Amino acid sequence: MSLLKDKAMLIQEKLEQRILHGLACEWEDAIGILNSQDRDKLRKPSFSLRDMKDKWGYWSSEKNEICLSRNLVLKHSWDAVREILLHEMAHQFTEQALGGHDESPHGQKFKRACYLLRANPKASGNYKPLDERVLHDSSSPDDKIMLRVKKLMALAQSQNRHEAEAAMAKAHEFIAKYNIDLLSRDEDRNFISVFVGNPALRHFREEYHLANLLQDFYFVHAIWVSAYVLEKGKRGNVLEISGTTQNIKIASYVHDIIKHYIDLQWHKYNKDKILNRYRKTDFAVGVIEGFRSKLKLKTKKGERIKEKFGLIKIEDPLLKKHIKYKYPHTATVRSKYSREDRKVLSDGIGIGKELVISKGITEKKTGRRLLIE
């Protein structure tokens, strides 16, 4: 028994070492947004993990150290960890770059530091981590958009194909109407950003197609950002989406549903064919593009008509402004890929046209975010 316990302790120790390395990498990445003068004022801190009950982390000026909760880093998503890290970095920046030693912990200089680092000034104390706050929380009774979408997606589970597709179409129509109404009102709105999928050193072509679909039809902004890949101990990238809380929940849900659908349909399709991973990419791209064709506006005989699944693509100027603030320097990268199998792609398109987005469940054991309960 002691050998098993020792082995478990060794595994956790190695994991925590890798997490600490990840925090150091994220710190280096985060200060890149600062100007050179401000970066030079910061001393790279040491990082530590501790058991804490009443806070998620803290900054120690005496030790030049950022300490995070062991519970946070072991039980929550990496974007939630990074949100707390940025908050503690803002405390460091307040002291070392803005001279805020005599100011209250969350005073004006701290708020300035949060602005410059793109940190959340609220992410401390008993504040809920990002994954709980956004993706795993049940909607409140006042959240009419989410309650309405859930009801419609529940109807989309109907065994009657016509009824299921009609319910999905109604859900998408309601989402579009909500966003059009939102844009018509000249008022501020809060935007959040979350990871969808997992950070990785490499992403397959279908993941980029899926990111484009979310951005084109689900009222979020999608961008690939640098993120630490815990399993590899290296920096990779991950898809991050930004938008209102309601749109983030819906887009994250659609992302996971489509990936689950692709895996399920590929297993059936490839059962007797035994095709390689590249062909799965062709199939997956086909599925995504087939589903996209149900969402697009079509042009027929010179007239713009809206099919029963049509969504209107609109841009939120405030979201665009938020993204420009958060990511002032972005680049477009085009990658090359090997020749695709047109037959497999075409088969995927046909299967994608059969996809119906309906209500699902949260798979807590696997951590999959099928979040509309």
Mean pLDDT score: 86
H/E topology pattern: HHEEEHHHHHHEHEEHHEEHH
Shape call: globular
Fraction in beta strands: 5-15%
Structural class: alpha+beta
Number of helices: 13
Q: What's the story with the biggest beta sheet?
A: 3 strands, mixed
Total strand count, please?
8
Q: Name the helicity range.
A: 40-55%
Rg result: 23 Å
Strand order of the largest sheet: 1-3-2
Descriptive report:
The protein is an alpha+beta fold. The chain folds into two domains: 2-132, 2-Layer Sandwich (Zincin-like), CATH 3.30.2010.10; 144-352, no CATH class. It has 13 helices and eight strands. A three-stranded mixed β-sheet has the order 1-3-2. Strands 4-6-5 form a three-stranded antiparallel β-sheet, with helices on both faces. Helix 1 packs across helix 4 (78-96), helix 9 (205-217) packs parallel to helix 11 (277-295) and helix 11 (277-295) crosses helix 13. Mean pLDDT is 86; it is low at 298-309 and 361-373.
How are the SSEs ordered, and which strands pair?
Elements (H helix, E strand, L loop, with lengths): L1 H29 L5 H6 L4 E5 L6 E4 L4 E5 H6 L2 H19 L11 H10 L12 H6 L8 H12 L5 H24 L7 E9 L4 H13 L3 E9 L4 E10 L1 H25 L7 H19 L2 E3 L2 E3 L11 H10 L15 H11 L21
Parallel strand pairs: 1-3
Antiparallel strand pairs: 2-3, 4-6, 5-6, 7-8
Helix pairs in contact: 1-4, 4-5, 7-8, 9-11, 10-11, 11-13
How would you briefly describe this protein structure?
The chain is of the alpha+beta class and 373 residues long.
